[in-house]
Specification:
CATH architecture: Orthogonal Bundle
Structural class: mainly alpha
GO molecular function: DNA binding
Number of strands: 2
Keywords: DNA-binding, Transcription, Transcription regulation
Number of helices: 9
CATH superfamily: Winged helix-like DNA-binding domain superfamily/Winged helix DNA-binding domain
Strand content: 5-15%
Largest sheet: 2 strands, antiparallel
Protein name: DNA-binding HxlR family transcriptional regulator
InterPro entries: HTH_HxlR (IPR002577), WH-like_DNA-bd_sf (IPR036388), WH_DNA-bd_sf (IPR036390)
Order of helices and strands: HHHHEEHHHHH
Length: 141
């Protein structure tokens, strides 16, 4: 949903208009955690997103300023996607969703292991992860 269309002025509603569908946060997750950056990379994610849905979500995330497209260094037919500062600012939300899910669902051991640092010192871990993600951005974004 483009930034100028919103259902209400409620902050939760406005946020969900941008990333509250079934797929957008998974694309953000893949950019943050799995270093996926091309259309083909996203198609290979375990959740099995359809190509038309992926194209729509990538366009929406770009229109809303959470991701940006870059020229692919090896192919003029491909583009790279990366998070913007606005997209990186979703990291604390993804961490909280993960902690909630870990409380109520069985999750793989390797994911539990990754969350140990978060549980030990959530603020510092999030700050460090965000700093690392922002290093990948150029000063112009």
């Amino acid at each position: 949903m483009p930034t100028n269309q919103k259902r209400s002025d409620c902050p939760i509603s406005c946020s969900l208009d941008i990333w509250g569908d079934k797929w957008s946060l998974l694309i953000i997750r893949d950019l943050m955690n799995h270093k996926k950056s091309t259309y083909g990379d996203f198609l290979k994610s375990g959740e099995g997103i359809a190509t038309n849905i992926l194209a729509s979500r990538l366009q929406s995330l770009e229109e809303n300023g959470l991701i940006e497209k870059l020229d692919h260094p090896e192919s003029k037919a491909k583009v790279l996607y990366r998070l913007t500062h606005k997209g990186i600012d979703l990291l604390p939300i993804l961490v909280e969703i993960h902690l909630w899910a870990e409380k109520y669902f069985d999750i793989p051991k390797e994911l539990k292991d990754r969350m140990r640092a978060v549980k030990k010192d959530k603020e510092t871990t999030i700050r460090t992860l965000m700093k690392d993600l922002k290093k990948e951005l150029t000063p112009s974004t």
